[in-house]
Design brief:
Belongs to the 'phage' integrase family. Pfam families: Arm-DNA-bind_5, Phage_int_SAM_5, Phage_integrase. Helix content is about 50%, strand content about 10%. By secondary structure, the protein is mainly alpha-helical. The protein folds into 3 domains: about 5-90, no CATH class; about 100-205; about 225-410, hpI Integrase, Chain A (Orthogonal Bundle). The strands form 2 sheets. The protein has a 3-stranded antiparallel β-sheet with strand order 1-2-3. About 20% of the residues are buried.
Length: about 425
């Protein structure tokens, strides 16, 4: 046992009421660190000795007896919470100790823990995705089971509950992809609660012979070379459409660079005819940070020259500013992406191109057209900053049949 827990009277400073604060003293034997937690209880030295120090005094009556029972309850709970931890940690101990006893089995509580953690770590997009899932679960729980989300417990989420949730989502017109995203997020919350020893593994509703999260085949969003040519040469009706098309092709020409990474690109990243950056989406997911280098072309140089900030000390493009915190950055990048997608769709609709064309297509279009032009899988994997070649191969799942048809038709093209 790497800790010691006790109830003490903090006599370092007397309060105005002539009493001292009673505190929970916790000592970590490994770090030799001591913390005292206020219990909002004040006693005189004599009261404390009577109620707590003299355990042989079993004849306490009234308020004194109630106070002893209250302190015993606090000490017992503190010991139980510490005992459940594999290794004693003050931060986790504090979280567990000062929450309501019902929180350990509460779904919303565990969602909020993850949301708060990601928000604190500037992972605004991840925090938002957990909020979306929680809102969806809340609607189902209220509408179908008349259970408000703050009352939803883990043991209520059974295999049948999840199957009913899936039917509910389908009836609302949601896709299996959305259902898969939300139920995977819920599964993470279940695993977090189990790891924290807040719930039993026995109630885990996912896996073999239990609820199966829908497996969906990703629809690959890529333009072929003829479609890319048509989009590149398409007439634009205003400056908004021109900017949308320019940034779409800037992403495409920069190895399918994500719009967030474009927004966060700095002039200091540019050296001669290339720039280097770390991909924001995967930066915190890998211990080894891989730099991506993009070589500039006449086209990408023109985009930087035309849309770049005059001040060369900060970001290249006027999408976010140095003063923005992570929440404002997230909002601005999301709005800019929506703006680009809205206007690129207008161009697509007038030119008989896919009506759901978006910035997402630029990355896949770069990858598939690189493959068709003879680039190796290894080259594309590095360009896309994939962690493993198998990820890249999976990325192309669904294009094989089209590629085979093209190959078959080309056999007699002597």
């Amino acid at each position: 046992m790497g800790y010691n827990i006790s109830i003490v009277l903090d006599e370092r400073r007397i309060k105005e009421n002539g009493k001292y604060p009673v505190k929970l003293r916790v000592y970590n034997k490994f770090t030799k660190k001591v913390k005292r937690y206020s219990l909002d209880i004040d006693l005189t030295t004599k009261e404390f000795e009577t109620i707590w120090i003299n355990p042989e005094n079993k004849n306490l009556r009234g308020s004194n007896n109630e106070m002893r029972l209250k302190l015993q309850s606090i000490e017992t709970r503190a010991n139980n919470e510490a005992k459940e931890m594999t290794a004693f940690d003050f931060s986790k101990f504090e979280t567990k100790l000062f929450r309501k006893s019902s929180d350990k089995n509460n779904v919303q509580y565990h969602f909020n823990l993850v949301i708060q953690k990601n928000t604190k770590n500037d992972k605004i997009g991840t925090a938002e995705s957990y909020k979306y899932t929680l809102n969806s679960l809340a609607k189902f729980s209220q509408d179908q089971n008349n259970c408000p989300i703050n009352k939803l417990t883990f043991d209520a989420i059974t295999i049948d509950w999840l199957n009913d949730y899936q039917k509910f989502m389908i009836a609302k017109g949601k896709s299996y992809t959305t259902i898969a995203i939300y139920t995977r997020t819920l599964r993470v919350i279940f695993n977090n609660a189990i790891e924290a020893n807040d719930i039993s593994k026995d109630i885990y509703p996912f896996g073999k012979n239990k609820y199966k999260i829908p497996r969906t085949k990703k629809v690959k969003k890529a333009l072929n070379s003829l479609q890319l040519k048509k989009l590149f040469e398409a007439e634009v009706l205003n400056d908004n459409e021109k900017q949308a098309k320019d940034f779409w092709f800037f992403s495409y020409a920069c190895n399918g660079m994500n719009l967030k990474d474009i927004a966060l690109l700095k002039y200091s990243d540019i050296k001669n005819d290339s720039f280097s950056y770390y991909r924001a989406k995967t930066f915190d997911k890998t211990a080894e940070k891989t730099t991506i280098t993009i070589y500039l072309t006449d086209f990408t140089k023109r985009i930087i020259l035309e849309y770049g900030n005059n001040n060369k000390n900060g970001y290249v493009f006027n999408i976010v500013t140095q003063k923005d915190d992570s929440a404002i950055q997230y909002k601005k990048i999301k709005n800019f992406t929506r703006y680009i997608n809205d206007h690129i769709k207008r161009i697509a609709n007038r030119n008989d191109l896919p009506n759901d064309l978006s910035t997402y297509w630029a990355r896949h279009s770069f990858a598939t057209n690189s493959l068709r032009k003879g680039a190796s899988m290894e080259f594309i994997s590095e360009a896309l900053n994939h962690s493993d070649l198998s990820v890249t191969k999976n990325y192309f799942a669904g294009f094989e049949d089209e590629a085979k048809k093209e190959f078959a038709n080309s056999l007699l093209d002597f």
